[in-house]
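Notes from the 1:1 (GR / supervisor)

We went over the backlog. Supervisor wanted to see one worked example end to end before approving the batch request, so GR pasted a single chain during the call. The sequence is below; no edits were made to it. Supervisor asked that the structure be written out right there so they could see what the output format looks like.
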Amino acid sequence: MSFIKNTTNVLLSTLLGFFILTSCQQSKEKQAIDYVSPFLGTDFFGHTFPGPAVPNGMIHVGPDTGTQGWNNAAGYTWQSNSIIGFSHTHWSGVGMTNGGDILLMPTVNNKLQVVPGSEKNPDEGYRSRYNHDKESASSGYYAVALLDYNVDVELTTTQRAGFHRYTFPKSENSRIILDLGHQLGNMTSKKESRLNIIDETHIEGQRASGLGTVYFVIELSKPFKYYGTFDTDFKAPESGHGVFPYKNEESGKNIGAFFQYETKVNEQILVKVGISYTGIDGARKNLEQEIPHWDFDLTRKIAAETWSTELGKIEISGTEEQKEIFYTSMYRSLLAQYISQDVDGSYYGSDGQKHIADFNFYGSFSCWDTYRSQHPLLTIIKPEDVNDYIKSIEAKTRNYGWLPAQHFMNVFGEAMVGDHLIPVIVDAYQKGFRDYDVEFLYEAMRKKALENPEPPVPEYAGRSGLDYYKELGFTPIDKVTEAVPNTMELAYDDWCIAQLAKELGKEEDYELFSKRAGNYAMVWDVETQFMRPRLANGDWLEARDTKEQLITKVDDHSYYTYFDPLLIGRRPNRHYTESNAWQYIWSVQHDVNGLINLFGNDERFLDKLDEFFSMSTDVSAPKYVGVVGTIGQYVHGNQPSHHVAYLYNYAGQPWKTQEKVRQVLTQLYNSGPGGLCGNEDMGSLSSWYVLSAMGFYPVTPGSSNYVIGSPLLGKSKIFFRDGKTFEIIAENNSPENIYIQSVTLNGERYTKCWISHEMIKNGGNLHFVMGPEPNKSWSVDTDSKPPPITK
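Structure output shown during the call:
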């Protein structure tokens, strides 16, 4: 018995040691969240910000290094060597310079400074130098050492409140600067900002930004010893640079306050900031509910756990670099939609009134960018939010009395080209998301497609050139800016309306909008094989050999008077939207087969497509900063090219799609700060990568189909809330084995080069066998091609 007992004890000890070892090994295994690199895309033109946020968060707190110009659109650039401070609103990779609301900066300086200074000379103001060796970021957390002050800064966040932790040195002149004049962009407001110092630990106010008013409430963990306000627009000898000690209130455009402390070595002062777009009461409620304590580490842990849950929805195998790019891309894709209502459901409507929502209200839709891949990706990985996106669009339309297009912060305004909230709505409806008033939204789409707005809705809220589009079938370049893409993208939007009309049993509307969906052919020039600008009299814009920039003006509208397929130009003079004729040939996502017919046959279409990818990258001046990430005239740094590599599937050469998609995935995405080849644009580049790396892409949002490319990852497994999973296996996958040899779906031979949303949602297994040479017999017959969308 003693032997058995001793043996059992040894066995138990051995097993216990094994379990401890296994547990330690498992704890060291990297999870999805560990691969996220918030610095990816902060260099060059990625315009990403490295600060902490949570999925769909209203607040995006982070460091600001610059305030003006394209390079500083996100407030932070990797190349900068000094930090202005830490503000609470940033955009995920947009091309506009805005944000930077409610900036805080801890300082230690004998001399009080209330202006930020310059990047060339940080000593001119309260800026501080820093270096990347003493800077870190992860999902929900950011930290940096301010070298000029010997202050360590840590940031974390909830959905509506930011949390700062500053570790000061021993000093009698430790301060926290609050700067409401700090501006990340040139979209300044005519309104004034205001602040009110309530007591030694509470400050509240409002900041007039370029896109509305941001209200805030600040709580300090330690009462300040001295304080004051400043207005940098006011200078007086007796008060320094507009500094007013012991003044409780301040208003103006460039105002702020300072709070002074005496600190011990490594003393920590915490700062909590709640924001709202409805009022100070909303900011206070948001802060009280989301951070009712002073436990910074707890808030950081909750943020990390939230991200871990979201990123765990897809499990992949691949190289360490592939995992970093993939999970960072997934992270960016989940950041792009921002809620803008308070904890009690209050939001500021596009009618200028306060409303209450019983759902998550989203105030911004950068839909020229996001309809293509980011919204379709969210129908897979964030289905619980999709109905709220559409409910938000419905609420905006009811509030304002008109369907909006691209807009930010619920400030009604039309931006970019096309009417692309329509495909966001129709794509969701086609995939089964229907918890909203679809009849109301359909009528709003239909009205905007057929009528110009009437007061009080401003004229600019209507479709650009609608009267010409209805009468001529196209918008003329001598009347409408960016006339060619305007025609083409409205034709696509009309196709989306037609699909919804068909679903709702509106046959006459279906016929009307199906016919209008073919209007892209009205700008097709068979002689040059380009979508070419036309004049109101029906003539083509003349082609000229000269490169002289000839601009004419008609009815307050300026345009280049010659056609050059490589001309991009700058608004308002350009013929195409951030692109040229080469890049816009292919923007017929809804009718690729119709586009092929314009060329005459598959061979001519393929010849043009081959030339597109193989020709010189040169474009005609004046150049556009967004033309980056190029393969020939393919521009991955801008959205109109994003679907083009998948078009070979429609013309019987899917192996070329596999080749081009894999080339983009491996050449134009990298790890590190310079890893993005262009402007992130609210998750557009990132969502393209997530979908394409798994092996498919939504060429036509508004349908429920995805076109197959070349899976980069050995395995991708999507987990759904109902317990189902969809697994994609790429057997024999490698940098050389980029071509599909065969495919099975749920164990059955599969020859189509597309899959449906229903197949993914129902769960199953998509199994690819990859090889180094094209299989030119796979998915080339007519029945295997992506479905014809229109006749």
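Supervisor's comment: The mean pLDDT is 91.
Batch request approved.
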